[in-house]
Specification:
Serine Threonine Protein Phosphatase 5, Tetratricopeptide repeat, 77% helix, 2 domains, mainly alpha, 11 helices, 244 residues
Length: 244
């Protein structure tokens, strides 16, 4: 399937599970396609908002004109006609708002729940200029939101050490860089090796799946988190309710 068709099917909500996998692979491997995808999402959001505002203004103007005509002519047939027209416009506005909310729901849920995980494993002393270790460079890049550099250093660090938190912060860096598939892979690795960051990995893997519209996978991870009762219990419970 060509990329344009995938985009069209994504935005009208008709992607199959297999097509979602293909789309995610393109987003991961093709930077130009990813840029086009993100731009189109922004454009769609702006169009929906403009339509919502425009429809609201038209409805208000119609009601004002209806009142004016009704007052001027006092025609008894106008009242039921204006009521019917108002109902139609209100239904149209409700439909538009509903679809806009559905489309933006995933984005809003992610944005309201995502928070960058802090560096809790490597203390950076700014005055210690003699520390030029790979670990320092990795976490300094992470703390300053230079995720491309952080990923590069962490991958290098992963090859040279067996520190399990390297995968966790790789996942964090991929997630912040909107590379959700790679983020999920790293978090799953943390879960499988039973790392000290296992509970945190459940949460962030769920958010990454949510961003990819993979609600089934997100819900399963959140259920594990709720069952374990060790991290983000309240947030995971509330998010599960919103996804059901």
């Amino acid at each position: 399937m060509d990329k344009e068709t995938l985009l069209l099917k994504y935005f009208d909500g008709s992607l199959s599970e297999e097509e979602k996998v293909i789309l995610n692979r393109f987003l991961e491997e093709d930077d130009e396609f990813k840029s086009q995808f993100l731009l189109e999402k922004d454009v769609q959001a702006v169009i929906r908002e403009e339509n919502r505002i425009g429809l609201k203004k038209r409805l208000q103007r119609f009601e004002t004109e209806s009142e004016t005509v009704s007052t001027s002519y006092k025609r008894t047939w106008w009242k039921p006609l204006s009521i019917a027209a108002s109902i139609i416009l209100l239904l149209g506005a409700s439909w538009l708002l509903f679809n806009s909310n559905v489309f933006n729901g995933q984005e809003q849920l992610f944005a309201s729940n995502y928070e960058k995980y802090p560096n809790t494993v490597y203390t950076i002393t700014r005055s210690d200029v003699s520390d030029d270790s790979l670990e320092r460079m990795a976490f300094e890049a992470y703390e300053t939101n230079d995720y491309d550099a952080a990923i590069e250093y962490l991958l290098d660090l992963k090859e040279k050490t067996r520190l399990d938190y390297v995968d966790f912060y790789l996942g964090q860096s991929y997630l912040a860089n909107e590379n959700y598939l790679k983020a999920i892979d790293r978090f799953q690795e943390i879960i499988e090796i039973n790392s000290e960051f296992k509970q945190e990995a459940y949460w962030y893997a769920a958010l990454a799946n949510l961003k990819l519209d993979q609600n089934k996978e997100a819900k399963q991870l959140l259920k594990e988190l709720v069952q374990n009762k060790k991290y983000k219990l309240k947030e995971a419970s509330e998010l599960l309710k919103k996804l059901d």
